[in-house]
Specification:
By secondary structure, this protein is α/β, with parallel strands linked by helices. 44% of the residues lie in helices and 16% in strands. The chain has a single domain (6-131, 207-286), classed as 3-Layer(aba) Sandwich (Rossmann fold), CATH 3.40.50. It comes from Nocardioides caricicola.
């Protein structure tokens, strides 16, 4: 399995982020932008999927802010991440690509449509939800995380924390010869404080009031054995989006990597369905 090379891309007025851009089979291959899970990087979440997708599509990954070699800012917010994705779409002249997200990435994908609807040609939401804090356990976890981040925010922006994250990421410039060591380096390139702040902000996400207004072809990949995000909530979200198709798999929340043999075929089917509907003049009315 080949890990694609990447580069730092300047997003005007926002900062620099690490991006991979794998060409498709043709110069005009449809573009797919992949958004990663919390605590991961673009490559760590999506490396099993990039090569299969690239047989039909131009495939782009990016490290979100505070993750890997993503934008370093004073604060983390999902709204800022969505604006970063829109800026990348403009910078790479992608038109209106299919935006695909896994877990945190699916929340960001929802917000890309919400904040920049004309820049999105379709959505694929994997292991997703329309809100957190839907159970007592989730509410307690997110509340505690928010309070903890208030106390550690200064530490999270310390030179030591930033230097450690960037030092680990620098090692990724080398060609990986051992998948385990490479994956560990990717994982360590995001600081624990960054993960904490991201989780706290995700706890404030609530898209239920506007899901029914999503007007682009959408597919939802449901992880039926998910212990992090309720499969019931994943299916309920899909039902709220007009014409959304459901692609379920008997897998857990880390399916994108640990159960890629199940996840990747479902992802390919979901992206293919969205792409076919995007090309149809009947769009959502045919669903």
């Amino acid at each position: 399995m080949r890990i694609p090379d990447g580069r730092m891309v300047d997003l005007p007025g926002r900062g620099e982020a690490f991006v991979t851009d794998t060409p498709g089979p043709r110069p005009d291959s449809p573009a797919v932008v992949l958004l990663h899970a919390v605590g991961c990087t673009g490559l760590l979440t999506w490396f099993p999927s990039i090569e299969p997708l690239a047989r039909r599509y131009r495939v782009i990954t990016m490290d979100q802010r505070w993750h890997g070699r993503g934008i370093q800012s004073d604060e983390f917010s999902v709204r800022d991440c969505a604006d970063d994705v829109a800026a990348l779409i403009d910078e790479l002249e992608l038109g209106a690509p299919i935006v695909v997200g896994f877990s945190m990435g699916s929340i960001i994908a929802q917000r890309v449509w919400r904040q920049h609807p004309t820049k999105v040609g379709g959505l694929v939401l994997c292991a997703t939800t329309d809100r957190f804090r839907s159970t007592i356990a989730e509410r307690g976890f997110h509340t505690a995380m928010g309070l903890a981040m208030g106390a550690t925010r200064g530490i999270s922006r310390s030179r030591t924390a930033v230097r450690a994250a960037r030092s680990a990421a620098t090692a990724l410039d080398l060609k990986p010869t051992d998948m385990h060591d490479w994956a560990l380096a990717e994982f360590r390139s995001t600081s624990p404080w960054a993960v904490g702040q991201a989780v706290a902000d995700l706890g404030r996400h609530h898209s239920r009031p506007w899901l029914s207004r999503i007007d682009v072809p959408t597919a939802v990949v449901v992880t039926l054995k998910d212990k992090v995000l309720s499969p019931k909530n994943q299916i309920a979200l899909a039902r709220k989006i007009p014409g959304a198709t459901v692609h379920d798999i008997p897998a857990g929340h880390a399916a994108c990597v640990l159960e890629s043999e199940r996840f990747v075929p479902a992802l390919l089917d979901a992206v293919g369905t969205v792409n076919a509907r995007r090309r149809s003049p009947r769009r959502l009315s045919s669903a």
